[in-house]
Amino acid sequence: MKNIQIEGLIQELKKKAIVEKVNLWKRIASDLEKPTRNRRIVNLFSINKNSKDNETILVPGKILATGELNKKVTIAAYTVSKEAKQKIKNSGSSVVSIYELMEKNPKGKNVRILG
Asked: Are residues 102 and 80 in contact, defined by beta-carbon separation less than 8 angstroms?
């Protein structure tokens, strides 16, 4: 069974990769094409451990709420659990969709992929 939303996102990522000549979007598209069970799952403690303040983090998968986040970062992911979203907002960080990140940062500058 195909998910129309993820298919649309993958197509947009591939288009952006060609138009902007940015391999980051191509890589994220190929990660999202994998079966759901093979997609990345990242906990907040991992983001906290592997990021710096004011950094942009991209997770081509799901973010879960295990752990704490005490850095101010911008996080983009395909899905984010409700608890993780709340903890991210409470830490002063922000959550954006991968679409929003593509629009705000079409060249993919200073984006760290986690997972």
From this structure: no
CA distance 39 to 33: 9
Alpha-carbon distance of 2 to 86, in angstroms, equals 29
CATH number at residue 21: 3.100.10.10
> pLDDT (tens digit, 9 = 90+) per residue, 69-115?
999 999 999 999 999 999 999 999 999 999 999 999 999 999 999 98
Q: Domain range spanning residue 99?
A: 4-113
Q: Does this model's pTM top 0.85?
A: yes
Q: Is residue 35 classed as helix, strand or coil in its secondary structure?
A: coil
